[in-house]
Design brief:
Helices cover 3% and strands 47% of the residues. The chain contains two helices and 32 strands.
């Protein structure tokens, strides 16, 4: 589908190649024993103590379109585990991508009687070129043991070890990441790893309401797993929010997480799974720990929370997902209480000339349905009809079987919000007996046809699936 610049962040993907290479011939060196020499081809040395000092102080880099100029790396090599730190080499590019240049600094001796040595990469940082010297850090490789090590195939550290042979030419991938820094949290210097994988911010904030309707700040635990093809995978985060104060005076900050936005991944695909547990320590709550919300979600649903300015451009902020247990607003999509049946549809334009996208959510208990739609790019200041349709495919959605309108039979209106046309609909519909919702579609109507608005013209469709 088309990507709309008011909620999508673009990131250029690169692969940096760490090149292992030796001279074609071996020779004698001035040591008691004759040794071969292996050359780790990484580039001319830039003796730059200023760059080394800046590295130690540099914050984790944000994603950018800047061109890489230099790599700064540290290695441990040979049978005696010799350490070389803060080696700086230029970065070159050919038809296969980026790679590091040849460097005399990386001419490594191989002891007599051996034809190879072990090399361990312990840090790897990518800088821009500032007039022949390192400028600013744009990518880093995460180290083993950091909270981002699972975002790459191989973080740098003790396990990033390979053999360097005399006379060989090896190419070893080093994955790096950058992140989309739209929250106030800052990291100490992390060494990340290079297909740059941007990290997007996802935040939670919760309330608890007593049966009488009094609001309190919720104490809760949030767990996030990887999710693939309907199956929960490895856990990514398990964290509990901090509450200051007691009772009605209690306060808390949103609980935030960084999640990977892999460049080759469909943003509308569910790739994470969240479970929220209300804790017994919640002010005003006298019950046991209780799972109150769970479900899969996508990167696109995170980006729906990204803030925009008055022109509809990304302003670098993010709203938190706000859930309320026991309150009127309850647990909003995309998550729900474990006892409910939930269905989701990714809404896409029907005509390639339109920039329409969004999500529809259905939550069913008995014959009561809660329906929510959030759609961008519709004709502003116009009402838009929307229905659940009989068939499962947007290629043949069939007749309408249930109107998604308000209880007074009016249709939702698309409004301009900070330069973006946005329609947000939420309604509780009673007496619903429609079955097989996972085999239904949702169709949104209303489109400008030349100079005339046609309220009946289908403009977007989504196919429901249970989740």
């Amino acid at each position: 589908m088309k990507k709309m610049n008011f909620y999508l962040v673009l990131c250029t993907v690169f692969t940096l190649i760490l090149t292992g290479c030796s001279k074609d011939e071996t020779g004698e060196i001035a040591t008691p024993d004759s040794s071969n020499v292996a050359v780790l081809q990484l580039g001319p040395v830039l003796n730059s103590p200023e760059a080394s000092s800046a590295l130690k102080q540099q914050e984790t880099p944000e994603c950018s379109d800047a061109t890489p100029g230099f790599a700064q790396l540290s290695i441990i090599y040979g049978p005696n585990n010799i350490v070389k730190e803060d080696i700086i080499v230029p970065i070159l590019k050919d038809g296969q991508g980026y790679f590091t240049a040849y460097s005399d600094e990386l001419e490594l001796p191989i002891p007599a009687g051996m034809n190879k040595i072990s090399v361990t990469l312990t840090e790897f940082v990518v800088w821009t070129n500032n007039g022949g010297s390192p400028g600013s850090v744009i990518w880093v490789a995460p180290v083993e043991g950091s909270e981002f090590e699972d975002f790459v195939d191989q973080p740098v550290g003790p396990d990033f070890t390979f053999d360097l042979r005399a006379g060989s030419k090896n190419y070893i991938n080093v994955d790096v990441i950058c992140y989309d820094n739209r929250d106030v949290n800052r990291y100490g210097y992390q060494f990340f790893t290079i297909t740059p994988v941007p990290l997007v911010k996802f935040c939670l904030f919760g309330n608890y309401c007593t049966p009488e309707g009094r609001h309190y700040v919720a104490s809760y635990n949030a767990e996030i797993w990887e999710y693939n093809n309907g199956q929960i995978g490895d856990i990514i985060y398990n964290d509990t929010n901090d509450i200051d104060g007691e009772g009605s005076q209690a306060a808390a900050d949103p609980l935030c997480f960084f999640l990977p936005d892999h460049p080759n991944q469909d943003e509308n695909e569910d790739v994470f799974y969240l479970k929220i547990t209300l804790l017994s320590g919640t002010p005003g709550y006298n019950g046991p720990d209780k799972v109150i919300a769970e479900g899969p979600f996508s990167v696109a649903e995170i980006k729906l929370l990204f803030g925009t300015d008055q022109f509809g451009e990304d302003n670098g902020t993010v709203d938190y997902y706000h859930f309320q247990y026991g309150c009127d607003n309850g647990v909003p999509p995309p998550f729900g209480e474990p006892t409910t049946k939930r269905y989701k549809a990714c809404i896409k334009y029907l005509d390639g000339s339109d920039d329409v996208a969004g999500f529809a959510y259905l939550s069913v208990e008995g014959t009561t349905m809660q329906a929510v739609t959030s759609v961008f790019g519709l004709t502003p200041n116009k009402t838009h009809k929307q229905h659940i349709h009989q068939n499962a495919s947007c290629g043949n959605y069939g007749p309408a079987v249930l109107a998604l309108d308000y209880n007074d039979n009016t249709w939702p209106l698309a409004n301009m919000q900070q330069g973006v046309s946005f329609m947000n609909y939420a309604e509780v519909i009673s007496g619903v007996t429609l079955s097989n919702l996972q085999d239904r579609t949702v169709v949104v109507h209303g489109k400008m046809m030349g100079q005339t608005y046609d309220p009946d013209q289908p403009v977007a469709c989504g196919e429901f699936s249970q989740y």
